Amino acid sequence: MLSKNVLKRIGLKKYLKNNVIETLDTTTKICIDVGLSETAPYSGMWLSNDSDRCVLGIEALQWNWERLGGPEYDKSASLRWPIVRLDTNSIIFEDTKLVDISNRFFGLSCAIDDIPRPKKREFYHMHAEGASSLLKPSEKHTSSIKKVETVQCVSLQDILEYIDWNKFKFIEHIKIDCEGHDAAVIRSLGKYLKKTIFLTFEMSAANQGHWEQQVDPTETMHFLRNNDFHCFRYDGSNSLWVNGACRPALKWIGWIEGKGRQTALVVDPQTSLVYYCDMIRERTSEESAEELMIRALQRRGRIGPEVK
Question: Could you tell me the pTM of the whole model?
């Protein structure tokens, strides 16, 4: 378990009751958003699509927290996706308040790393929005360093020890956008990877080689395959994976304007509780998603012609 100082530092302590995150009685599902940037569109989409959800939002940069919590926001972003506004505890879409998210969004100020115990690390705050990382940028990076900051790092497994697992049987969806550090974030889930239904992370062919010590994407693919995860969507930037144990129950249920495509998944036959995968773009077929990813990476010279 995390020390009291770390719990307070990352903002988790204030959410705890009897050593677990206190959630609404009506909340039955939980999602995790790692790397919020300044609008947190995934959290916005999740919270606006299902009133039974809560979201654990994780962001390292104070710069982004100030923008998530301030009265001014990018109105053009709210025309594309539902976005989080912490000053009013609401989701905004098309410059209009959609839903109240009081006691449904839990924000943690930290970075996620695959480490056995918490520690502080340098974090590279880049000038380009959404391009900051724990990894040092390489000479190929298209942006420059704005500031090197010191941030608290913890593993996802340490954070998830504070979830009420008597109430939440699964993690519905984890989204990771950590600019080259996604593999470490996935590994930091530890035993909770098996409790995860959907997993989305960045695997952009265009970003390969932008960071020093960046893990080869095929290593992440093999790691997920070995843990019975299957890729069923790749749009050239983000890859979406589903837990193999849940795959037989996967069904599609149509389009919701402005909030993404949803995939229905009945996990618990006793309660018939339905979990959703909220999609930002059209999916590719399950059979071709991984092939598309491999071809894109091959074109960039990041992997060889054969992938076992």
Answer: 0.89
